[in-house]
Amino acid sequence: MNKDVLIKMEAEKKYPLEIKDVPPEEQAEVHKYLTNAKPDYIRMGSTGYFFPDGLKEICNKIYNMEVRPNDVFVVTFPKSGTTWVQELVWLIGNDLDYKTASNVQLFQRFPFLEFTMVLRSPKINKWLGERVETDPKLRPFYESFTRNSRSDATIFKAPSPRFIKSHLPFSLLPPTLLDTAKVVYVARDPRDAAVSYYHHCRMMLLHGFGGDFRAFWNLFINNKVDYTPYEAHIKEAWEKRHHPNMLFLFYEELSKDLPAAVRRVSQFLNKPVTEEQVMRLCDHLHFDNFRKNMSVNMDIFKHIGLINKDDHFIRKGKAGGWRDYFDEEMTQQAERWMKEKLGDTVQFPICKI
Ligand code: A3P
After folding, report:
1. Which of 175, 166, 167 is nearest to 72 (CA)?
2. Nearest atom in ligand 1 to 186's CA
3. Cα separation of 18 and 79, whole Å?
4. 76, 77, 79, best to mutate for ligand 1 pocket (most atoms within 8 Å of CB)
5. How many angstroms separate the alpha carbon of residue 149 from the centre of ligand 1?
């Protein structure tokens, strides 16, 4: 059968997971902190993962997408070091092609599978459309999105080898994923991920979070932040950590011993590297260099106002930096929460800062 017909048939398969609208009073708990667009929210699957409603439009296409044996996915809960690991994986997977890495933006080399979900949310789309009227520098982004509203479809059709980023938990990704392609999953201490996510939601125009960290943390542990519940996301991946197509990494282990993480990735992708190459790559990935690297640091989005110009996507880069945001009471509460939700299942490497 013709390949296009097969792809179409796949895409038309019925979505087997449950999608529920979030009740208005629960949405209001989030909306009260949002200074810009206030999207409607949904809960996905039996776990009830929290998402803006734009995901409804693409979840089925993603679930039924054709996965190829030479695809490489980086999957994480947001703010767990995705960008860092994407660059590492892309360079190892592309024979250390630093030239292309510096000339082509990482988000083009390694696209974000469900990126369009935010702009597909009708209320966010409408808000941005109105904002474009008063802020013309946003227009090219808005229009290119409208023209390329199928940017996920571009990923589906991209030539191999594909490198794909996703924050979706395994249960929302294609069921064939791990038996077909390679997946690098990165986990980070939820307290650091939450602090990083809080800054992210403040600096990104399309999130526009206006509350303080305490408010954000409360939403986070009550599963009212995109992609939560955190513990379900990480446990789904942890259960699969021994699968031969899976490499489970911790942000904390990269922080502690980056050369060792580089060697693990090179072994996993069957791309041998010399010690000299490991050292050069570690230098390239070092926080100070990474932050200045225009093809990964997202500064490109500052020029159009999608990111506040005084903020940094590559922000602090610390394991354990959460301590500056949690008072004694929050620290204890977070410890209890982690014990209850993660127990002894996921063992984070101990990090001292
Ligand atoms: P902080 O906000 O705590 O600094 P993601 O790429 O998943 O959005 O994760 C972003 C987090 O990874 C940010 O954390 C960012 O600073 C950190 N990060 C990115 N590159 C890094 C690097 N080279 N070294 C250490 N941390 C890095």
Report:
1. 166
2. 7
3. 26
4. 79
5. 28
Centroid of ligand 1 to alpha carbon of 318 (angstroms): 8
Q: Which residue type is seen at 3?
A: K
C-alpha distance across the termini of the chain, in Å: 58
Q: Along the 353 residues of the chain, how does pLDDT read in single tens digits? A: 566 666 556 556 789 999 999 999 999 999 999 999 999 999 999 999 999 999 999 999 999 999 999 999 999 999 999 999 999 999 999 999 999 999 999 999 999 999 999 989 999 999 999 999 998 888 888 887 766 555 677 899 999 999 999 999 999 999 999 999 999 999 999 999 999 999 999 999 999 999 999 999 999 999 999 999 999 999 999 999 999 999 999 999 999 999 999 999 999 999 999 999 999 999 999 999 999 999 999 998 888 888 998 999 999 999 999 999 999 999 999 999 999 999 878 878 765 55
Write out the H or E segment, with its range, that includes residue 171.
none
314 lines ligand 1 (CB under 6 A): yes
Which residue's alpha carbon is nearest to atom 26 within ligand 1? 317
Mutation probe of ligand 1 site: the residue of 75, 207, 315, 325 with most atoms within 8 A of C-beta: 315
Q: Please, where are the H alpha helices in 213-327?
A: 213-221, 230-238, 251-256, 258-268, 275-285, 287-292
If you measure from the C-alpha of residue 237 to the centroid of ligand 1, how many angstroms do you get, rounded to a whole number? 20
5 membership: H or E segment, kind and range? helix 3-11
Residue 317 near ligand 1, beta carbon < 6 Å: yes
Instruction: Clarify whether 167 is annotated catalytic.
Output: yes
- Give the side-chain half-sphere CA count within 13 A for 35: 10
